[in-house]
Amino acid sequence: MALVNPLDPNHDPETKKLAEFFNETLGFCPNSVLTMQHRPAISKAFINLNKAVMANEGRVTSALKRMIAWVSSNATGCRYCQAHAIRAAERYGAEQEQLDNIWEYRTHPAFSEAERAALDFSLAASQVPNAVTKNIKDRLYQFWNEGEIVEMLGVISLFGYLNRWNDSMGTSIEDGAVESAELYLGKHGWEKGKHDGSRY
């Protein structure tokens, strides 16, 4: 039940060019970006921020960044972003066992202690009120350096924006994202919810 309709991908040529980034990450340009282009300055700024946040400059892999995004989106309840994050994690090489057991990252042997520290950070940082504590910080520093922690928080913050945008907008979810969500998250009750393509 979209609040605002997405515009045609050809509406703004600069956005269209920048949005080629998403053909790699998702296999399609997301409707969230097509909606943002009602104000092209927002769509272009968002894509550039997304590219900067998802760049790999340390040991935080592309797959782990997308799993961080999934935990953040799960904490806030955004079904649209949950589906996108798990699809991108799949496309960026997350292990099959991790994709199948993302809900159990704290206990499942497919996740390392370093990954658990990162995902716990994502969960704590995504809550309102914020739940990042000294214990979370101490665990992060056992495995990660300051630059890598900045990368992680960049992902969490980017998805904080996306969670608010897409859940408020009721962004219509794309078929490819639905396919990945049903494959990996459906057994835990994932459904389209307000993102089914109908209007408010």
TrEMBL record:
<dbReference type="Pfam" id="PF02627">
    <property type="entry name" value="CMD"/>
</dbReference>
<protein>
    <submittedName>
        <fullName>Carboxymuconolactone decarboxylase family protein</fullName>
    </submittedName>
</protein>
<dbReference type="InterPro" id="IPR029032">
    <property type="entry name" value="AhpD-like"/>
</dbReference>
<dbReference type="InterPro" id="IPR003779">
    <property type="entry name" value="CMD-like"/>
</dbReference>
<feature type="domain" description="Carboxymuconolactone decarboxylase-like">
    <location>
        <begin position="40"/>
        <end position="120"/>
    </location>
</feature>
<dbReference type="GO" id="GO:0051920">
    <property type="term" value="F:peroxiredoxin activity"/>
</dbReference>
